[in-house]
Design brief:
With 315 residues, the chain is an alpha/beta fold. The chain has 13 helices and nine strands.
Length: 315
């Protein structure tokens, strides 16, 4: 805000102070922070493709620490490029990761985006995501687990192997086949170094116990990201964006009703709240209820077809 002092001609002894409100600074996105570094030389990466992926990451609500980490990776790769040009060492870093957080906090979505980014940055050949859980890796007899695990590692080469609820691999003790899966994964990380990225995901406490239960794991996963639960404001924004992507619009009354319901669900002491996943289910349900309601209306207008009202949220 700037200040301008004006002396009125009709009253030379009167001073008028005019406050000029300057426009609010636009919130800088991750995409904006990368644009100044775009194509510094002919040898640079082609930024246009992965800047589009960055826009996809920016579109996600919240996740500031995750977005900051992505910029760190981007900056490292960019500066390493300058270092190679200057004849300096530019060693690659281990990018195996652990994602910790409750369901519906964006872990799988971010893993998919990370794969796309690492492909565009030249770290991974394909950047695809192979998503598995315990049942996909653990076999029924000795040797079967190693075979199944190696098959999924092979599918993930050039991309990301994402293991959800990874802590379940260590729940059965030393005699459980889950331990065989862990040992096979550790060997694959050595045999296929820099050929794929392994991401282990799950609840924060369970993942922390899982990591500490195996002395060799912490050093193999230098990157650990915490995915916090969404705030009520972030959940409402997620709901609004989900509706807009499908050409729907939440009425003010619908938003208020949804907000009250989400606050109640979030404060349930012994109930697992699935964050954005829960919101998505509510939006999809409300779209079905709106369709049933509009069937009773002879000629719904364009606005009718788009509007989700409080009556469509049967909570």
């Amino acid at each position: 805000m700037s200040r301008e002092v004006v002396t009125e001609k009709s009253a030379p002894h009167r001073i008028q102070v005019v406050l000029n409100r300057e426009p609010a600074a636009k919130k800088q996105t991750l995409y904006d922070s990368m644009k100044p570094l775009e194509e510094p030389s002919e040898e640079s990466y082609t930024h246009s493709h992965y800047l589009q992926v960055i826009k996809e990451l920016d579109h996600l609500v919240g996740l500031k620490n995750v977005k900051d980490f992505i910029y760190e990776i981007y900056a490292l790769l960019q500066i390493n490029q300058y270092r190679r040009k200057a004849g300096l060492k530019a060693e690659s870093q281990v990018l195996h990761m652990i994602f910790k957080g409750n369901p519906g906090t964006g872990k799988t979505t971010v893993a998919r985006i990370v794969g796309k980014l690492l492909k565009e940055m030249g770290v991974l050949d394909k950047g695809h995501l192979i998503e598995v859980e315990r049942a996909d890796l653990v076999g029924e007899y000795i040797g079967h687990t190693a075979q199944k695990t190696r098959e999924h590692v092979k599918k993930a080469l050039g991309g990301i192997l994402f293991i959800d609820e990874a802590y379940s691999l260590a729940r059965g003790g030393d005699k459980d086949f889950g331990k065989e899966a862990i040992d096979t994964l550790v060997k694959a990380m050595e045999d296929h170094k820099n050929e794929f990225v392994l991401i282990l995901a799950g609840y924060s406490e369970e993942m922390e116990y899982f990591i500490q239960s195996n002395p060799g794991l912490p050093s193999r996963f230098p990157i650990q990201l915490e995915f916090a639960d969404y705030t009520i404001e972030e959940l409402i924004e997620i709901a609004r964006l989900m509706a807009e992507e499908k050409d729907y619009r939440l009425s003010r009354q619908a938003i208020e009703r949804l907000k009250r319901h989400l606050l109640k669900e979030m404060n349930q002491p012994f109930r697992s709240f699935s964050n954005a996943r829960y919101v998505r289910n509510l939006i999809e349900q409300s779209i079905r209820y709106q369709a049933v309601r509009l069937m009773k209306k002879p000629s719904p207008t364009r606005d009718d077809l788009m509007l989700i009202g409080p009556q469509d949220l049967r909570l």
